[in-house]
Amino acid sequence: MSSKKPQSRTTSGRVEAPKKLGARHKARKRAVDFLFEAEARDADPVDLAKERIELARGDDSIAPVSEYTETLVVGVAENLDRLDSVISDHLNDWTLGRLPAVDRAILRVAVWELFHATDVPPVVAVDEAVELAKQLSTDDSPSFVNGVLGQIVLVAPQVRAAAAAVSSRPADVETNGEDPVL
User: Fold this and answer.
1) Rounded to an integer, what distance in angstroms lies between the CA atom of residue 145 and that of residue 46?
2) Given 23, 25, 37, 79, which is the most exposed site by the fewest CB atoms within 10 A?
3) How many angstroms separate the CA atoms of 129 and 64, rounded?
């Protein structure tokens, strides 16, 4: 028996080695899993993640929850309405509710990373989301996710710049009770 990993062929016929999936990819997948499960159970995703963190601490047979998974789940939960609004604004002839739940979770994680994870290059956030869609969703989902994120990635630099400007303002600057940035 060979210990070689399976290879796949591209549309041009080239043989392509399988992608190596690192710790951040696994953290993103786990965050998508938590967000998907929380939505299906109508539960708070942050509470679900905390529950799993505690379970893993007490049981060595349960994989620990990475810090980045928790960061993603908390970030998406805290910004859910804004993330959903941005995603909805970039859906053509679709509504957020019509999307498969796993696609919603993937898009939410990716858009949160595009806007808030300054250590993640935008191309990586998009590529990781497409990879998750390949693994977890329908055959049409990777290209759909790529198309939606391809539009959102264009506004990400402005959103990040606005967030940096707001966070660097003195605390006594009036915002009239509104949060001006995603």
Assistant:
1) 24
2) 23
3) 22
pTM for the complete prediction?
Answer: 0.81
Q: What are phi and psi of 8, to 5 degrees?
A: -120, 160
Contact status, residue 32 vs residue 102, Cβ threshold 8 Å: yes
CA-nearest of 65, 63, 36 to 49 is 65
Of 68, 69, 101, the closest CA to residue 84 belongs to 101
